[in-house]
Amino acid sequence: MCVFVFLQAPVTSIMKENKWRLYITEMDELNRPIHTFQVCHVMEPNQNNWLRTNWIPRQAAQKIYVELRFTLRDCNSIPWVSGTCKETFNLLYYEADEPHGANAHFHPNDYAKIDTIAADESFTQTDLGDRVLRLNTEVREVGPIARKGFYLAFQDVGACIALVSVRVYYKKPGFYKAFAGNIKCSKCPPHSSSHTEGSALCHCEKGYYRASKDPPTMACTRPPSPPRNLAFNINETALFFEWSPPSDTGGRKDITYNVSCLRCGADGQPCQPCNSNVRFMPRPVGLTSTSVVVQDFVAHANYTFQIEALNGVSGMGRSTRQVANITEQEQLSYSSTRTKSPSAIVTGLKPSTVYVFHVRARTLAGYSSYSPKFEFATGDENSEEAADQGQVLVIVTATVGGFSLLVILTLFLLITGRCQWYIKSKIKSEDKKRTQYQNGHVPFPGLKTYIDPDTYEDPSQAVHEFAKEIDPSRIRIERVIGAGEFGEVCSGRLRVPGKKEIPVAIKTLKGGYTERQRRDFLREASIMGQFDNPNIIRLEGVVTKSRPVMIVVEYMENGSLDSFLRKHDGHFTVIQLVGMLRGIASGMMYLSDIGYVHRDLAARNILVDDNLVCKVSDFGLSRVLEDDPEAAYTTTGGKIPIRWTAPEAIAYRKFSSASDTWSYGIVMWEVMSYGERPYWEMSNQDVILSIEEGYRLPAPMGCPVALHQLMLLCWQKDRNRRPRFSDMVNFLDKLIRNPSSLLTLVEDVNGFPESPEDMPDYPLFISISDWLDSIKMSQYKNNFIAAGYTTMDSVSSMSIDDVRRIGVSLIGHQRRIVSSIQALRLQFLHVQQSGFHV
Ligand code: ADE
């Protein structure tokens, strides 16, 4: 129902000598002042007091409804009243196409009577016997109204009236108005509707709910779908779970996760809840991040975990629990087998189930890291190999220059030799199931390999091979969120057959394009369509058969990582930042495993969803460099984002996963500095020269030593020494599992050089004033000078507390000043290539 209320105080055009008065002394039940118009001249005969509203535009109304709330005293309750006392008043209206001027004469005869209004009941009796004046509500229908608007009038003929509110509305289903006031009524929020006149609230559709604190203006929401992409990692003491947020958040942002743990006996006994010895970090329930570490398992037991997604309306109505599943989307269980032989038969497997194996070696020297994971699906119950059902043979071989296996396993740990793993299935054809993994940057053969769309003679064939064609009628474009090289980027919704709508980002190709532009535009979809990883932006499909040509991808609520971090400077814990880095490394590990080199990895090309999950985006090779505002022409004519690019790629275009690793180190630096520009305002040429001389970015303020060390490893000149993404994912997982490893910050260990000999020279030109100008902090010149810091020498020993003390109160500015002091003083750290291994 649509309601619009006109009763704004003061209501104008009261007739000469009329006796209506505006009072604001009354309070409502919430102690807010109520404006009432009152009149009470019950002792005097021949009363004729008029109160008139302002002109009310009819809008789309045919008939209007007038709801009056008022009190009317009954004449018997007023002592000494004479027969002049009345207990009614008149409601009238007058149609007009436009408002009359302020000085226009008031003609009561123009007004048509709607009704005489009487009170239902003037007084009610309280439990204590007091008589309380009762608020009456009366509604009258008026119309049809033909003119563009109308006035309402209230004629008092000698009653004692307090008019509390007048609401004027017309009926328009699906609308509501939550608050009184001269505002338009609103369409019911999504998943709700109104059924009665003058609704102040819309009711939720079946299956949708409002949490107790949700305002009536908010859409009705529902419980989320289960978490997705549940993955796990096991080491000797801990199980590390990670998952992606539900694809359907139910329309809410307050998603949390609960992890439940069941311990199952090996002998088929029913599973029991895990006892309290099993520890969860940070905790088992109410998780807001998408990972958890579980520790302190009992040996020789099977555990089953369920990850449940919840939001503010979970548990309302008869909503069901939304539990993550890794295979059948129900549960994940793991168990381990130890053997001294290089093979193991795993029995008791269920039919039609996906199993994931990984293997590691153990010697006196400790454990090796795990092999990559192998996925293996058992056949169904009726398969030919019924006799072998439920068994798999895992064969492990390791070779280092032809030594025997025993020696090799020992050497493997000590000298990191080459290792090959085989897994062989007895259930399905053995050859088909054999997979092999080799260390190094060779694509992982267990995964499909990336195919360069340019190798297709007909590029549109590549698009159709890797991307679904979407019927444009399924896409609803809502708003423009950015501009790309080829056209606008919009947000909107995609209807997926058999499912509900999902939010999407839509890249469009603007009209008037050349065939080459179309091909370049769609190249990104041909690339993205080959990827399937929770840390890579997902392609939903393309529109190529109608105009505009579009690429539709999943929507990432927080946009690009660099601007997101700048907007939330200082807001996250180190663990949250490391979680983001871990996600990016994991996405990059996937890309390098399938042989894709990104070439433009930078925080601006990472997208962030509303659960802080980071996903790598912006694929397109040649396009990357055209589109990226950071890309600059090199002396060899290439266009390259210099600050993010490895020296060998700048110098002779040697792009590889190892050059992506260099860029990843820069992304780490961007993340830990909350979106600071790498190398600040240095020119590209100076960056290239500094890097060539061996200088590297110093740690951002508050950066754990372990992370800066990892950055330095990524920035090694010799690309073969740079860590692989899988190493980095492992390393970051370890940091997350042992948060104390992140407590040592670079500033704690570096301090400033002990002696002047250790102190690098400052650039000669630097004065306090030039320096502050160069970092755009000129506004603090007086603070430095007033506090006695007149030379860069004196500034070099300032701590963050000193910076605060001289009056720099904004944390972002403190950060910028201190990191610049470090940068200047250290003149970029020389790479230390020893003493640290991932
Ligand atoms: N900008 C570009 N792509 C986007 C996406 N997928 N989600 C949100 N913002 C974007």
UniProtKB/TrEMBL annotation:
<keyword id="KW-0418">Kinase</keyword>
<dbReference type="GO" id="GO:0030425">
    <property type="term" value="C:dendrite"/>
</dbReference>
<dbReference type="Pfam" id="PF00536">
    <property type="entry name" value="SAM_1"/>
</dbReference>
<keyword id="KW-0812">Transmembrane</keyword>
<dbReference type="InterPro" id="IPR008266">
    <property type="entry name" value="Tyr_kinase_AS"/>
</dbReference>
<dbReference type="InterPro" id="IPR001245">
    <property type="entry name" value="Ser-Thr/Tyr_kinase_cat_dom"/>
</dbReference>
<keyword id="KW-0547">Nucleotide-binding</keyword>
<keyword id="KW-0829">Tyrosine-protein kinase</keyword>
<keyword id="KW-0472">Membrane</keyword>
<feature type="binding site">
    <location>
        <position position="507"/>
    </location>
    <ligand>
        <name>ATP</name>
    </ligand>
</feature>
<dbReference type="InterPro" id="IPR008979">
    <property type="entry name" value="Galactose-bd-like_sf"/>
</dbReference>
<dbReference type="GO" id="GO:0005886">
    <property type="term" value="C:plasma membrane"/>
</dbReference>
<dbReference type="Pfam" id="PF00041">
    <property type="entry name" value="fn3"/>
</dbReference>
<keyword id="KW-0808">Transferase</keyword>
<dbReference type="InterPro" id="IPR027936">
    <property type="entry name" value="Eph_TM"/>
</dbReference>
<dbReference type="GO" id="GO:0005524">
    <property type="term" value="F:ATP binding"/>
</dbReference>
<feature type="domain" description="SAM">
    <location>
        <begin position="767"/>
        <end position="827"/>
    </location>
</feature>
<dbReference type="InterPro" id="IPR001090">
    <property type="entry name" value="Ephrin_rcpt_lig-bd_dom"/>
</dbReference>
<keyword id="KW-0675">Receptor</keyword>
<dbReference type="InterPro" id="IPR020635">
    <property type="entry name" value="Tyr_kinase_cat_dom"/>
</dbReference>
<dbReference type="Pfam" id="PF07714">
    <property type="entry name" value="PK_Tyr_Ser-Thr"/>
</dbReference>
<keyword id="KW-0732">Signal</keyword>
<dbReference type="InterPro" id="IPR017441">
    <property type="entry name" value="Protein_kinase_ATP_BS"/>
</dbReference>
<dbReference type="InterPro" id="IPR036116">
    <property type="entry name" value="FN3_sf"/>
</dbReference>
<dbReference type="InterPro" id="IPR050449">
    <property type="entry name" value="Ephrin_rcpt_TKs"/>
</dbReference>
<dbReference type="Pfam" id="PF14575">
    <property type="entry name" value="EphA2_TM"/>
</dbReference>
<feature type="domain" description="Protein kinase">
    <location>
        <begin position="475"/>
        <end position="736"/>
    </location>
</feature>
<feature type="domain" description="Eph LBD">
    <location>
        <begin position="1"/>
        <end position="178"/>
    </location>
</feature>
<dbReference type="InterPro" id="IPR013761">
    <property type="entry name" value="SAM/pointed_sf"/>
</dbReference>
<protein>
    <recommendedName>
        <fullName>Ephrin type-A receptor 6</fullName>
        <ecNumber>2.7.10.1</ecNumber>
    </recommendedName>
</protein>
<keyword id="KW-1133">Transmembrane helix</keyword>
<dbReference type="Pfam" id="PF01404">
    <property type="entry name" value="Ephrin_lbd"/>
</dbReference>
<dbReference type="InterPro" id="IPR003961">
    <property type="entry name" value="FN3_dom"/>
</dbReference>
<dbReference type="InterPro" id="IPR013783">
    <property type="entry name" value="Ig-like_fold"/>
</dbReference>
<feature type="transmembrane region" description="Helical">
    <location>
        <begin position="392"/>
        <end position="415"/>
    </location>
</feature>
<dbReference type="InterPro" id="IPR000719">
    <property type="entry name" value="Prot_kinase_dom"/>
</dbReference>
<comment type="subunit">
    <text>Heterotetramer upon binding of the ligand. The heterotetramer is composed of an ephrin dimer and a receptor dimer. Oligomerization is probably required to induce biological responses. Interacts (via SAM domain) with ANKS1A (via SAM domain).</text>
</comment>
<keyword id="KW-0677">Repeat</keyword>
<feature type="domain" description="Fibronectin type-III">
    <location>
        <begin position="223"/>
        <end position="331"/>
    </location>
</feature>
<dbReference type="InterPro" id="IPR001660">
    <property type="entry name" value="SAM"/>
</dbReference>
<dbReference type="GO" id="GO:0007411">
    <property type="term" value="P:axon guidance"/>
</dbReference>
<keyword id="KW-0067">ATP-binding</keyword>
